[in-house]
């Protein structure tokens, strides 16, 4: 494909936009720069960084598939060719920029060494002089580096001389010992000189302005100006080289993901035009009623085909396999849940006849059994509660079988099961149905009462055996299926929470009112995933507001050290304590209870990353308040 006259490779109109979207997605993901943009610490709060990066890559690749799925199959070959040309042109330009920046850095470094060699004797020979503080600081840093280099050379020459001495004793040919000893003596001389000059520079730094006299050399102002200018230009050149290097890493990552996604579409491993939603595991492109078994067979066949293909490829492509498996899961599992909701909705309104119920279950759930399940032809239930319970058990068994079948492909699938179950199942059951399970929460509430009494901030009167905050857990406790943990929750509002969010002091409401609103919404909902998401949202908004305040303060002071606007745990904890102290004590008790429940009940994969960091910080803030 011939390039245009301006040197840019020709490509379909949507390729530039597509590549820009991919770059934006990758830049926004924690993979791009986790230490500066996405986590308060230098590493994400995950015990296994490789697993974390792998999951972030899968999430990015799956998100990248969404715009590609809108393309037509016949457009893919030209897109692949244009993608190669475009990426090669981009990476070639970045390589050129990196080479230019590196060459400029080397040239400026040589000039800086020359100027420094002329400047240092003048500065050291005039111990009383109004030297600029920046000059002294830079010279001190350079002398420290020269001292470290000299020490490294001395250590190297000492090890080499010791080795050569042993070789000489054994009669083997050796290097020129006189040359090595001369080099070592030269390095020792450089070390002594740099240490003496460093001592003088440090003494100049500690002098007061009143002790300063006029310069003793006419060349000193010019050399100082050149030295400071070269230091600034060298810093800019190194920053430029680092910038282009990061851009190249970004371009390579995006190209790899784009190539994998396009190759996947070309091979027909993902259906073009398939509508996938990342929110709640829902899909608007629901399979026909009678095609669930076919979808599962298609998924199994696809997994084997992709695995065989990737076994012959290099290791980075192994990420694609898991992403495709997850994509297929998101295609047919929500469809199965859709069929389940149809049945559960009918059952909560009116009990179907035995024949209708049996046919519906067989039509929607005709999967191969991997363990003993409730028979679809079971006797009809005698009332609505028994019908709902039987259906609930049936669905649990199906989910258990699916998790067993997908044990080798569990890339976020557990969370999708949870989302589907939470969003589709409990939205279609009435509170009257749930009331039949209230007798099952006695043991849990007693345990919760015992645990809560050991916490001073939570009064005993705030707990009741029938409190709605605890009902979702007592009704449907966590169940483990191998490594997959499912938490069954209801997405209902809590009527016991006040109808209006608490208000902060006027000076804080404008900046941190949205934080309190998220905390209030977290207290209103009963779904653990929703609680975690809202708690994390409140945490992020607190960080953003605090960072904005710090940045505004820096700008008012005229400072350019914008990195000081970053937020650390030492900044967050006092601020959260201050904000929470503005809230009513009863609301603090509710927040404490929700934090306890989330820590005890949520699966471990949801307590990593931002979710876990947010939960731990809020829990620590409430602990501090309880000890005041």
From TrEMBL:
In terms of superkingdom, the source organism counts as: Eukaryota
A Pfam family reported for this protein in Swiss-Prot or TrEMBL: VPS9
Listed SUPFAM superfamilies = VPS9 domain (SSF109993)
Q: Where is the VPS9 domain?
A: 480-628
Entry-linked InterPro entries = VPS9, VPS9_dom_sf
What's the protein called, per UniProt? VPS9 domain-containing protein
> Which species is this UniProt entry from?
Geodia barretti
């Amino acid at each position: 494909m011939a390039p245009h006259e301006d040197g840019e490779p020709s490509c379909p109109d949507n390729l530039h936009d597509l590549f820009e979207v991919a770059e934006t997605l990758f830049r926004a993901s924690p993979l791009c720069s986790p230490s500066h943009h996405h986590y308060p610490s230098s590493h994400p709060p995950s015990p296994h960084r490789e697993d974390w990066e792998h999951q972030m890559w899968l999430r990015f690749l799956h998100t990248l598939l969404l715009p590609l799925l809108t393309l037509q199959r016949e457009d893919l070959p030209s897109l692949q060719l244009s993608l190669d040309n475009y990426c090669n042109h981009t990476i070639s330009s970045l390589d050129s920029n990196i080479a230019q920046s590196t060459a400029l850095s080397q040239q400026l470094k040589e000039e800086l060494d020359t100027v420094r060699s002329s400047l240092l004797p003048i500065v050291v020979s005039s111990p009383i002089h109004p030297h600029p503080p920046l000059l002294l600081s830079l010279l001190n840093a350079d002398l420290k580096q020269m001292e470290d280099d000299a020490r490294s050379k001395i250590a190297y020459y000492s090890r080499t001389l010791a080795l050569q001495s042993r070789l000489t004793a054994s009669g083997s040919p050796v290097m020129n010992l006189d040359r090595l000893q001369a080099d070592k003596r030269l390095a020792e001389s450089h070390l002594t000189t740099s240490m003496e000059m460093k001592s003088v520079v440090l003494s100049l730094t500690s002098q007061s302005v009143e002790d300063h006299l006029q310069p003793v050399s006419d060349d000193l102002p010019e050399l100082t100006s050149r030295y400071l200018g070269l230091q600034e230009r060298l810093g800019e050149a190194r920053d430029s080289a680092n910038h282009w290097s990061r851009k190249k890493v970004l371009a390579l990552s995006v190209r790899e993901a784009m190539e994998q996604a396009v190759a996947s579409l070309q091979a027909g491993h993902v259906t073009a035009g398939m509508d996938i939603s990342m929110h709640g595991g829902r899909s608007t492109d629901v399979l026909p009623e009678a095609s669930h078994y076919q979808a599962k067979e298609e998924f199994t066949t696809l997994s084997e085909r992709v695995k065989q293909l990737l076994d012959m490829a290099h290791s980075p492509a192994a990420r694609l396999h898991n992403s495709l498996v997850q994509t297929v899961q998101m295609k047919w599992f929500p469809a199965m849940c859709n069929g389940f909701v149809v049945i559960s909705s009918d059952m909560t309104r009116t009990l179907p006849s035995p024949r209708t119920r049996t046919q519906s279950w067989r039509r929607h759930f005709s999967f191969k059994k991997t363990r003993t399940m409730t028979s679809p032809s079971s006797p009809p239930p005698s009332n609505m509660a028994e019908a709902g319970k039987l259906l609930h058990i049936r669905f649990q068994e199906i989910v258990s079988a699916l998790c067993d079948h997908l044990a080798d492909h569990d890339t976020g699938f557990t969370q999708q099961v949870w989302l589907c179950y939470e969003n589709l199942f409990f939205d279609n059951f009435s509170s009257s149905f749930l009331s039949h399970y209230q007798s099952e929460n006695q043991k849990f509430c007693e345990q919760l009462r015992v645990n809560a009494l050991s916490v001073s901030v939570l009064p005993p009167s705030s707990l009741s055996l029938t409190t709605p905050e605890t009902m979702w857990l007592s009704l449907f406790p966590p169940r483990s299926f191998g490594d997959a943990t499912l938490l069954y929750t209801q997405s209902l509002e809590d009527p016991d929470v006040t109808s209006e969010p608490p208000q902060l002091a006027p000076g804080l409401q404008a900046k941190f009112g949205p934080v309190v609103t998220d905390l209030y919404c977290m207290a209103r909902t009963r779904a653990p995933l929703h609680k975690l998401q809202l708690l994390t949202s409140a945490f992020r908004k607190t960080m953003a507001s605090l960072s904005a305040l710090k940045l505004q303060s820096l700008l008012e002071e005229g400072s350019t050290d914008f990195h000081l606007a970053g937020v650390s745990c030492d900044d967050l904890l006092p601020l959260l304590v201050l904000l929470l102290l503005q809230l009513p004590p009863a609301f603090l008790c509710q927040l404490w209870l929700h934090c306890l429940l989330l820590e005890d009940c949520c699966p471990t994969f949801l307590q990593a990353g931002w979710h876990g960091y947010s939960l731990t910080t809020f829990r620590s803030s409430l602990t501090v308040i309880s000890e005041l």
